[in-house]
Amino acid sequence: MSKTDVSRRGLLRTGAVTAGGLALPTIFTAQSASAFTNDPTGGTVTLGFNVPQTGAYADEGADELRAYQLAVEHLNGEGDGGMLNTFSSKALEGNGILGKKVEYVTGDTQTKSDAARASAKSMIEKDGAIMITGGSSSGVAVAVQGLCQEAGVIFMAGLTHSNDTTGKDKKANGFRHFFNAYMSAAALAPVLKNLYGSDRKAYHLTADYTWGWTQEESIKAATEALGWETVNTVKTPLAATDFSSYIAPVLNSGADVLVLNHYGGNMVNSLTNAVQFGLREKQVNGKNFEIVVPLYSRLMAKGAGENVKGIHGSTNWHWSLQDEGSKAFVRSFGTKYGFPPSQAAHTCYVQALLYADAVARGGSFNPCSVVEALEGFEFDGMGNGKTLYRAEDHQCFKDVLVVRGKENPTSEFDLLEVVEVTPREQVEYPVDHPMFAGGQLGSCNPGA
Amino acid sequence: MFGLNKKDTSLLLIVIVLTLFAPFILNPFPTGSGLAQFNAGYPDLMQRFAIFGIFAVGFNILFGLTGYLSFGHAAFLGVGSYSAVWMFKLLSMNVLPAIILSVIIAGLFALVIGYISLRRSGIYFSILTLAFAQMSFSLAYSVLTPITNGETGLQLTLDDPRVLGVTSTADGSIPVTNLFGIEMRSTYNLAVGPWDFQFNMGYYLCALVLIAAFYLSIRIFRSPFGMMLRAVKSNQQRMNYTGLNSKPYTLAAFVISGMYAGLAGGLMASMDPLAGAERMQWTASGEVVLMTILGGAGTLIGPVLGAGFIKYFENIFSKINDNILHSWFSFMPDGLEDFVVFLVHPFIGKGWHLTLGILFMLVVVFLPGGLVEGGQRIAGWVRGKKKPDAHQSETNPAE
Amino acid sequence: MDAFLLQILNGLDKGSAYALIALGLTLIFGTLGVVNFAHGALFMIGAFCAVTVQKFLTLSVETIDPEKTDFLGNPLKVKTPYVENWFGPDIGNAIIDWSVPLAILFAIPIMIAVGFIMERGLIKHFYKRPHADQILVTFGLAIVLQEVIKYFYGANPIPTPAPEALNGVANLGAIVGLDLIYPVWRIVYFCFACLIISGVFAFLQFTTFGMVVRAGMADRETVGLLGINIDRRFTIMFGIAAAVAGLAGVMYTPINSPNYHMGMDFLVLSFVVVVVGGMGSLPGAVLAGFLLGILESFASMEWAINLIPGINQIIIYLVAIIILLVRPRGLMGRKGVMED
Amino acid sequence: MGILEVKNVGKRFGGLQALSDVNLSVRENSVHAIIGPNGAGKSTLLNCLVGKLIPDTGSVMFDGQSVLGRQPYEINQMGISRVFQTPEIFGDLSVLENMMIPCLAKRDGSFELNAIASVMRQTDILETAEKMLLEMNMADKRHMNAASLSRGDKRRLEIGMCLSQEPRLLLLDEPTAGMARADTNNTIDLLKQISDERNITIAIIEHDMHVVFSLANRITVLAQGKPLVEDDPQNIRGNPKVREAYLGESA
Where in this chain does the record put each Leucine-binding protein domain (chain A) (predicted)? Predict the structure, then answer.
């Protein structure tokens, strides 16, 4: 018997059939059969969509899953093709990937690192998935990215905003299309300066975990560069539901801007509480008190209801964008599901397409070929204008949207309006930027 | 055999057979078939079955025997995992020292928490353990990030010092966990006709540890010490007036079950070198309580069954999606197919929690003794006998 | 000084929610001897009563507005709630605006009914079963209840604002010359909690029914020997406990948008509160609720965090441990309740 | 010198002086009864002897050693076994296991981490337990669940468990309370037999005069927390103070 690394079910599915009947046990070894993990040898290729289906981010996960299903349809040549028509690369022909029909398996990350890894492992070991994608938090993204690196499959991150994902925890087999905390801050800062001036005192409330810290670090650096003074930064427990005892001290702190470095349920509650305490009507130092939410999500904005009105933040993508790619995607998605897609859905859809395209351009499912095809890849027609996958850290660079909670929404989806599209050059940073320091990309791992 | 009576020996043999042949038993359906979805014979899940089996067996030594309901046992599992990962980072990728350290650290941690918590009994004890575990979780998530790496979880990096071993392999990746050179992730694939079976080194290490842990638990159940623990549960007053000090007995049970949890945590990290803080959350502690009660508290095999049951649902049912449902029911006429899928839909995929909740209720309502009682009833029914009468079954509660 | 007063108010407010949930939990412990892990779910169901009422009131007719387009470029469908059509925009909007207070009327019968069904249909069969079985079955029930809610309402929080008139802030300190600004609805919540708590106490103290229940809590067998059907009264107490939790949930919705797992968030904390207060003691539960609420607020102040990093994350558990070690049966617990 | 010497023991609960200046001497191998009307402080005194309560004043010496401040299990290890008013046995365990536990406590002391050996291979323990079951006439019930025994059998089991430790002093707290006449007589016979056949001291707290006068060869009468008299049974019977104490109660 010989040893193999990680199991390979994909090849066995067809291999076993040829072995046939009640033949004597045949022992397969990866070395002789294939050069990389889960090499799809039949007529199909399996992708793993690992999204939160239970817990606080279940709705976001459901939207991601919808986007993936749409992407699979388009890849297999069903439906209207969506962004395949606007994508600058034309390697995909609507006949699956490299002629293999795309199939998928789904799993539940539960927004827990352990569960997400278990689910991804089962996709790799049991279902023979060649690529894992999805997720709604940075902890999960980093954990699954690490797993994929070890197992030798590609990871296309879903919604993950922490600097660490392509900073100190970056991995050669992982790619992130979503923007990050640094880019949010870089995009927001000039807009905030225009709106609120350069003489402001900011008070930060920050979710007490890694994403929150990188968000705080980024926005603090960006606003201080404008001349803003940081009055205080306070960490709030992730499990907190009532933020009143953190909001109350803001009232008499002398600050005139409150920055909420919160996401998801934390953001909904802290914003609601802040508005309850009358912060939006408050006057400090002769100026209107302002609230800023650096990372916005439409799904979460909905949870905060009226409270988001007039509040600025940044977002990766929004359905109201008028470029051809976005319009095509919104049309496909809206026609199929009856409502516009979220930014998480957009990222996941694009990630699936980008992976397929990279395989097609490289002509192989081998992760190293995919990595090579994606590194330094520049494309257009997927929303957010010209986009680059930087080779050095596998971070995507594209335009970032600054948005504001809409005063007079016309429908339940029409909650945010785009204030400014910050061009890519403004949010770029050098690879060795201190906020992204530490960690190494390593080299691509094909698994075998 | 093995110093056990006939009944216990056969129980142990059953467990040995089940664990060693798990790759076959858990993969009953041919790979290509629609029912392959229900196959659980892949390394990660098999490892989880064994690891949570160990965790639950250990928990049962405390809860099943002494009746002390700890709501913070996940803390020991978490501490075990962290210790193991630190061992990988600093010492070597060999799992043996890592596992030994996790058992020791978890045991010490249990000694401290147990010493304080066991000053109270009943629900006051439960809340004390819960409070300690939640404190560990909250701090691991935030303030202790330098040690625990917070939300992301402690993982290996390309620049770990690793005294006995290499920082990174020749091709620039992180070395993998091994037992004296045998890699935990290496897997043999065996194809028989349309089936294929996976034999994973890591799983077999877990399986051997499970068998050892299970054997030890039988010995403890049948020992004078085990009898004293049952006496603690039955009547502490009498115990004290019989010249026995119940405190060290319960503390010993607490530490032993904490060490089992640490062992499970160390194994978990050995299979997958990452330790997340959620492992210590109260829901994780609650899970092992549920496993034990579901399987049958105080019975030997029950906790293992309960652990398997819950992990199966978590990993298999959560992965069934509408697409798969449609492929199963595609033989039906279109309208009926959609209707059946619509009916089943709430219980699979994102609804796996619902299914689990319903099953909890059904089991506890209809099988008061947990899954073990279900097994006994089936066995009794097969033999055509009525259930053995109450005295018999009560005097020998450790089936 | 102001900061301290504000934090006391915040603490009383958090404490109100803890106290209301803990009160119901203790009633159930004390009367039925059941460990009810589904009690958090009752709080959550109460909150979703408010959501449901809001949904009913905003049931709308769709009319096409050809002037505007939706996100796909089709003519925009404008929704007008029926109540606006029936009563005119002013009254209609006012009714929708007051949906949370209106939901109280709706929640009381619903919650009592839920309580009765739970007790008669399920809990009743578990009186004589071990606590472990009670935990398993009520935990299963809690999961089922929250998954059902998730199925119908999704996982995202749903905004349920307070009436416009009660949505602002009030300057509480104006009378004494302090600048003490506090949200009106939170004041309402605190007063409401006090009202409910005193209502429950008065009911138990001054009615014959309450006296029998109290006697039953102290010694179930003796009361049974008097030929009084204590079980039926206990069923009613379960309904009352469910209603208290439900009302706490309804009124909580404007403070934080409800979501399907909010019950679990409160469950563990309220267990800690009940135990710190002392098993079987109603005043203990209320006292512990307010005490822990206030301590939690103080611990989140900056000087506390600077003094002991992370104290805001663990304060409740730390206090629970200290109290239980100093006072073996919590603040006001009776001997022998749930000690074995 | 008696085997148990109680000197000047006093105990106060809030405003109530439960015991004051209690002196008592239990002679080796005697059957010593402590009687008194309700509220006389019998139970308080007993609890002071076994370590459940610590008296405010005075001393309790067992075989020359003080028992004060010791835990119940330590006092038991010194050689004092206690039988409760309502039988305290291990209800979830079998009768045989109930009998084995005190034997193990006798052999291994108050704590022994004997976690690997099999219970069923502790032949010495099994032998002692089986022998005691025979003596108690309970051998046929050895596999029964102790909770399902009759009240009288539970009492026998409890007494047997205490005896299997070969204590030097056996304390009985109203051992026949709530028993039917026949069971009471059986218990009296059993205790008589024990005191005749074994080298053991018995101290008994009792309400029932029939039991006391059938068994005791020395009696202390307590009233209002104070010892009234200590004497032989025949002298107690005619003592006017005792009559007064009891009549006072019954009137």
Answer: 44-406
